[in-house]
Amino acid sequence: MNGAGAASEVVALATHLGVTVATAESLTAGLVASSIAGVPGASAVLQGGLVAYQLEVKQKLLGVDADLLAAAGAVDPRVAAAMADGARAAFSADIGLATTGVAGPAAHGGKPVGTVFTAISSSAGTETFEHHFPGDRDSIRAASCDAVLTELLGTLSKGTNSGRG
């Protein structure tokens, strides 16, 4: 499923469930929030989003632990989880989404190009996903956006456990 299709389904299902969403994005730099916002009716769902490209932003605005960032770097499943939790808290949303990874052109922090971690934070807990996408910078960023929207759709499909319950 491409990002536009998943975003439409996300908005429809989240609206039906009365669930709000917030994003914290590193490598996707707003693509996820933009995909959701591009769907008519998104204002019922999207609380807001934060582009957290730099470590300092991840720490200060999303509450990612400085020691974790120093030890693991930005491309780590624990960082993705903390970003999703931080987005959920910062925007008082039912669900927080996060993307962090290496879009290229070169490896970063010992992680090869295409390594991406996404996370979904909800009242049911925080789940992380590891991806290894092929392609150039644009295709890796698009695949990351598609992946987290599809993961969100899966969380929403579980029903009330994803929201305020």
TrEMBL record:
Entries under Pfam families matching the protein: CinA (PF02464)
SUPFAM superfamilies reported in the protein's UniProt record: CinA-like
Stretch forming the signal peptide: none
Domain CinA C-terminal: 7-154
InterPro entries assigned to the protein according to its UniProt record, in alphabetical order: CinA-like_C, CinA_C
Protein's name according to its UniProt entry: CinA family protein
The organism's taxonomic lineage, starting at the top: Bacteria, Bacillati, Actinomycetota, Actinomycetes, Micrococcales
